[in-house]
Amino acid sequence: MTDLPTSPPHPKLDELIAVLARLRAPGGCAWDAEQTHESLVQYLIEETYELVDAIEGGSREELIEELGDVLYQVIFHSDIASASEGERFDIDDVAAHMTAKMIGRHPHVFGDTVAETAEDVIAVWDDVKAVEKSHRTSVLDGIPLGMPSLALADKLIGRAQKIGVIEADAPAVIGVSDEGELGGLLLAIVASAKANGLDAERALRVTLRGLQDEIREAEADPFDAGIIGTAG
């Protein structure tokens, strides 16, 4: 196994963790002390979208700020867990779990597996993940259905292609050359929906529920669907 590089100290990160702990400690901030995992969900979602905006069009300073806001949410949830019965973990436990996960998912770096291309890496990742998540019975397991509909559509199409419900190499129904052209097309579709009194978000979600049903039906009867041996 390849040795991990020596990690430099992170005093500012430790200071941020200490600040959060002080805010939630007796005599600290009443609002922070009252928060729960559930009450913070709205802020995590908001901060995540703000980070996306900073990545796509923000400045260096905005990216630093929004990364910090998301990092703070992780630290906040970890501090809540450290004081919650039945949880009792902290930020070090979160980091340790993630470190072990990343080392395990990269045997081509930390072990003897060979993966020379990005495609090889994805295949290795999928194989390792399949072993880790062997309790899952469907390719749909683990997909957060509350994702934005376009992101959810992309994820579900990928899973449908894995088991042959959708042909992976099928030609595109609509030819688009770049994301600028694609964005214009998507905007035109939404504008058309609005002009006709239709809800584009709901329409896509209803269609995606149908795709999920098709995937589950194919998994339930793989011989008829012809998907034996195609799942990754």
TrEMBL record:
It comes from the Bacteria. This is MazG family protein. GO terms for biological process: dATP catabolic process; dGTP catabolic process; dTTP catabolic process; dUTP catabolic process; response to stress; TTP catabolic process; UTP catabolic process. NCBIfam families: mazG (TIGR00444). Residues 35-110 form the NTP pyrophosphohydrolase MazG-like domain. GO terms for molecular function: nucleoside triphosphate diphosphatase activity. SUPFAM superfamilies: all-alpha NTP pyrophosphatases (SSF101386).
